[in-house]
Specification:
This protein is mainly alpha-helical. The chain has one domain (about 5-470): Hydantoin permease (Orthogonal Bundle), CATH 1.10.4160. Helix content is about 75%, strand content about 0%. The chain has 22 helices and no strands. It has helices at about 5-10, 35-45, 45-60, 65-90, 95-105, 110-140, 150-170, 170-200, 205, 215-235, 235-240, 240-245, 250-285, 290-295, 300-325, 325-335, 340-355, 355-360, 365-395, 420-435, 440-445, 445-470. Helix 8 runs parallel beside helix 13 (about 250-285) and helix 16 (about 325-335) packs across helix 17 (about 340-355). It is globular, with a radius of gyration of 22 Å. The protein starts with a helix and ends with a helix. About 50% of the residues are buried.
């Protein structure tokens, strides 16, 4: 039998290995309960959470319906989040390496690239919003800036460069930044709520708007895709959460930190977005779902500057934590010997521009029903396959060494587990079928749920059938 030192040396010489993808050792396991809670506070308190909730109001919900939708959706997505967190904390491996267990050592690139492309889209969206915030900030301090050609594009590129600089600092810098900023960001949200309360004349006028759905059936037509979009909002991180939990001190600490912070913070900040958006109807006569546009109407330059700086900090936090860590690892998984975490982050930045985020934010329908619902059709199946494989098929037992080696336990057919690929195609295809055939539109409206269920069941059934034949 090989000694552990020999095994470790064999892994390091593998083309599937690099230091960024290696299992986290005890020295790197520094994340406690507060760090995971701060992670979710810092990622939840951002403009897109606000805009998601405000979009539900614009879609016709009253404040109670919108808050309940956000809370239910985040409680649902917490389940796959914690399930996929377990192998990361237990074995210290990131998402693309974990995906090798179910998709094969090469097939994992299919799942990783799907997740990476979605993250690149989110990175571009967040960076565009940050650029808008800088543009408004500069225009507040220097009014002549409004007349500068392509001013928003210039600010977009500036914020893009700021993100790139943080990426080059590495994962540990991200942890420190989130721990410091999380309490401040919640305080800023409450201050914004205070402004809305005073400007609208109390909570009464802010909460007076009724639901615009004449019947319960009409309400359900909007609720189904809205709930699916709310789940899809964090369906991305529910896959790559091992990228963070691999640094956990214990399972208990990562579970408590996430379970306490995710649903509560998302609901709280969504409530702020709902109340402030309702207040804009009272104050300005129209619903303003973009907080940057709202701040541009403030008369106090000091309030605008402080609020925009807080928005920039929040956007930077969520962009790096949610939209860079995963694709950087995913791109690294494509060519571990050549693509490091930092180079993967640079590729993410470039792809974020190429995906034209300004079009994804054209209006709330494109954002909620198109973007969120569309990619959920692909990420739901990936989550179903990984959870089925780890908890049902393998019963939480992984051979970590073989995850980094060719010809090992996860080689399957020349590196690809075609059962996983087939299950992924079936789950995504079933969900997208509802986009093509109007009579079964509900399949697309529930794209994450449909894709997850179909792929979960099909992967388990086909794996059992294969194993029985091999006995």
């Amino acid at each position: 039998m090989s000694t552990p030192k020999v095994i470790h040396s064999r892994i390091e010489s593998s083309p599937l290995y690099n230091r960024d993808l290696a299992p986290a050792d005890s020295r790197r396991r520094t994340w406690g309960t507060y760090n995971f809670a701060a992670l979710w506070v810092s990622m939840s308190v951002n403009i897109l959470t606000y805009m998601l909730a405000a979009g539900l109001i614009q879609g016709g919900m009253n404040w109670k319906q919108a808050v309940a939708t956000v809370f239910l959706g985040n409680s649902i997505v917490l389940v796959p989040m914690l399930l996929n967190s377990h192998p990361g904390a237990r074995y210290g491996i990131p998402f693309p390496v974990l995906a090798r267990a179910s998709f094969g050592v090469l097939g994992a690139n299919v799942a990783a690239v799907l997740r990476a492309l979605v993250a690149c889209g989110w990175f571009g969206i967040q960076t565009w919003i940050g650029g808008e915030a800088i543009n408004t900030l500069v225009a507040t301090l220097i009014p002549r800036w409004i007349r500068v050609p392509h001013n928003t594009g210039i600010c977009f590129l500036l914020f893009w460069l700021i993100n790139l600089a943080v990426i080059l600092k590495g994962i540990e810098y991200i942890r420190v930044l989130q721990g410091i900023s999380a309490p401040i960001l919640l305080a800023v949200g409450l201050l914004l709520l205070g402004w809305a309360y005073q400007g609208a004349g109390g909570f009464g006028p802010m909460l007076a708007a009724p639901s615009r759905f004449p019947t319960f059936a009409d309400f359900l037509k909007f609720l189904v895709p809205a709930l699916n979009a709310t789940v899809g909002f964090w369906a991305t991180v529910s896959l790559n959460i091992p990228d963070f939990t691999r640094f956990a001190r214990s399972q208990r600490q990562q579970i408590i930190g996430q379970a306490v912070a995710l649903p509560s913070t998302m609901t709280l900040y969504s409530l702020i977005g709902i109340l402030v958006t309702s207040a804009t109807v009272v104050i300005y006569g129209t619903a303003i779902w973009d907080p940057v546009q709202l701040l541009s109407r403030f008369h106090s330059p000091v309030a605008v500057v402080i609020s925009l700086l807080a928005i920039l900090l929040a956007t930077l936090n969520v962009n790096i934590g949610a939209n860079v860590v995963s694709p950087a690892n995913d791109f690294s998984n494509l060519w571990p010997r050549r693509i490091s975490f930092r180079l993967g982050g640079v590729l993410t930045c470039l792809a974020g521009i190429a995906l034209m985020p300004w079009k994804l934010l054209a209006d709330y329908k494109t954002f909620i029903l198109g973007w969120l619902g569309g990619y959920a059709a692909f990420l739901g199946p990936v989550a179903g396959i990984m959870i089925s494989d780890y908890f049902i098929v393998r019963r939480r037992v992984l051979v970590v060494d073989d995850l980094y080696l060719r010809g090992g336990h996860y080689e399957y057919a020349r590196g690809f587990n075609w059962i996983a690929i087939l299950a992924l195609a079936a789950g995504a295809g079933m969900a997208l079928l509802g986009l093509v055939i109007r009579s079964i539109r509900v399949l697309y409206d529930y794209s994450w749920f449909v894709g997850f269920a179909v792929s979960f069941a099909l992967y388990y059934a086909l794996t059992k059938l294969r194993d029985n034949r091999q006995r």
